Amino acid sequence: MAEIQFAQGVAEEVIPDVRLTRAKDGSDGTATFYFDKPKALVEEGFEVTGLYLVDEEGMMTSREVNAKFINGAPAGLEARILLKSRDEWDRFMRFMNRYAEEKGLGFTKS
Questions:
Q1: I need a labelling partner for 27 at 20 to 30 A (CA). Which of 34, 39, 43, 89 fits?
Q2: Could you give the number of structural domains in the chain?
Q3: Using CA atoms, how far apart are residues 101 and 5, in angstroms rounded to an integer?
Q4: Is there a contact between 52 and 2 (Cβ–Cβ < 8 Å)?
């Protein structure tokens, strides 16, 4: 089980575009997620409290979540998680591999 959530216990159904950056020495990195019209913005009564990456190893969290609006209507969510060490990077990649496998996704290196 690997889920992305914006409120604990509520899985997001929209699959994000994920962009990764990493320092050349591997010491830190950033993962930026973009969700186009996620359930978290469409459903009434839903309160976004952060980004939660949940799997059998536990949970990774971030509070860096921003809504995107077009002509006053909610269009998407952008979330960023900072990976401050090689261990955090490795943990994130294990989560993403599980998530990709469950969702039938692939990885494209640019």
A1: 34
A2: 1
A3: 17
A4: no
Classify residue 66: in a domain, yes or no.
Answer: yes
Average pLDDT, the chain: 92
Higher pLDDT, 44 or 20: 20
Residue 40 has pLDDT above 90, yes or no: no
Helix H or strand E encompassing 101: helix 86-103
Give the Cα separation of 33 and 19 in Å (integer): 7
Strand ranges of the sheet holding 17-22, from the earlier edge strand across to the other edge: 17-22, 29-36, 73-83, 64-70
Answer yes or no: are the C-beta atoms of 50 and 6 closer than 8 Å.
Answer: yes
- For range 79-103, the mean pLDDT: 95
Under 8 Å between Cβ of 78 and 33: yes
Type and span of the H or E element at 95:
helix 86-103
- Rounded to the nearest 5 degrees, what angle is found at the Cα of 68, between the Cα atoms of 105 and 14? 25
Predicted structure pTM score = 0.90
Asked if residue 110 belongs to a domain, the reply is no
